[in-house]
Write a structure and sequence with these properties.
alpha/beta, Rossmann fold, seven-stranded parallel sheet, globular
């Protein structure tokens, strides 16, 4: 099969779908599958997936032009048997579509989405999913949502999960990582959270829990939040001021890819109290890095983390604070979570995800 891959997301903001497409296909190409791939994006001469593979440019960076009329001619020109897209497939495709729908949180948790984006997603993603020949999603939780909400037959939906690079994210070189991060950011022995600055990630309750922990325990180290501004983030900064945490909280909107693994492994604790996820890559990366994790009990996060972290009620500031205190004050618990976390992370590699992709696509041949 010749499969086209819509990679426009690789030139967009850092988010799960970007990590998914780049990591999945890099792992897939290393396995040397018999399929032929054409990668469509905004490459500017770059061969992101290597010189041996076809890279084709979209005529413009306009989302609507790409979806309405620019992709179909490319599909014909490159004689595609299928086109793999994220969330929304272009109109009038002359070939089959493989659609990855990471989650339906805009359906199940609309309060965390811009109204216009929610309406657009409900119209376009629903239409794309129902017309796709095959749907991929990243967790059993999201698969069940597609079946129940969009009434799509289960045999058309395959779980091709997110994963983690166990060599890149590992417990190795912790002391060196701590020195690197201190030299670059002047922080040490910190509590870490990673995720876009938006209400669904629940940073406000994390700040409240951190403030409560400080009031009860005194010095607990700084809180570091790594994430780009998305929307609805002003409450986060207002809460920092209201709780007088300006000297204790660092917001890092940009951390280089090469520094991110060190940022994880140099932390004393990772906290991820998100209200809802389709999968949850950051806690998986933290577990792979040997860091004890406190995370929301949202269904997809429980599916990924298993019993390898402390799960909390995201709406409960007290619950979050108590879990953080338990890890910080009990070295044995922290070590146990670190060990169990690394073992749990080994279940979710990009190589295993690539195998599931090949199994799914193989049913189309």
């Amino acid at each position: 099969m010749r499969i086209g891959v819509d990679c426009h997301v690789l030139s967009g903001k850092f988010q799960g779908s970007r990590t998914y497409m780049s990591s999945l296909y890099k792992a897939l190409l290393e396995m040397r599958p018999h399929h032929d791939f054409v990668f469509f994006g905004h490459w500017e001469g770059e061969k992101f997936f290597g010189e041996a593979h076809l890279h084709a440019d979209y005529p413009s960076e306009s989302r609507w032009k790409r979806l309405i009329y620019q992709t179909a001619p490319l599909a014909r020109r490159y004689r595609l048997d299928a086109l793999h897209c994220n969330y929304i497939s272009p109109l009038m495709l002359p070939t089959s579509s493989i659609l990855t729908v990471h989650d339906l949180l805009f359906e199940t948790h609309p309060q965390f989405f811009d109204r216009l984006d929610m309406i657009r997603n409900r119209l376009l993603i629903r239409h794309s999913a129902r017309s796709a020949r095959q749907i991929h999603t990243v967790s059993e939780f999201s698969r069940q949502a597609l079946i129940e909400i969009y009434r799509i037959p289960g045999e058309r939906i395959f779980v091709v999960p997110d994963g983690v690079d166990l060599e890149r994210f590992s417990p190795q070189r912790k002391d060196a990582a701590a020195d690197t991060i201190f030299e670059k950011y002047r922080i040490r022995d910190y509590i870490l959270s990673v995720g876009r600055l938006e209400p669904r990630k629940n940073h406000v309750n994390l700040l409240r829990a951190y403030a409560h922990l400080k009031s009860e325990q005194g010095e607990v180290g700084p809180l570091v939040i790594v994430g780009q501004k998305d929307f609805g983030y002003m409450e986060l900064f207002e809460t920092i001021s209201k709780l007088d945490l300006q000297q204790d909280v660092r917001i890092l909107e940009s951390v280089d890819d090469e520094n991110l693994p060190d940022m994880y492994r140099a932390a004393r604790l990772f906290v991820y109290p998100s209200y809802a996820e389709g999968f949850g890559i950051p806690p998986l990366e933290a577990m792979a890095s040997g860091i004890p994790v406190v995370a929301s009990h949202a269904p997809a996060i429980r599916e990924v983390t298993g019993n390898a972290c402390l799960h909390v009620e995201p709406a409960s500031v007290e619950d979050i604070a108590q879990a953080m205190h338990a890890v910080i004050s009990d070295r044995s618990l922290a070590d146990t979570l670190s060990m169990k976390g690394r073992m749990q992370a080994e279940k979710w590699t990009w190589e295993k995800a690539a195998e599931k992709y090949l199994d799914a696509v193989g049913t189309m041949e």
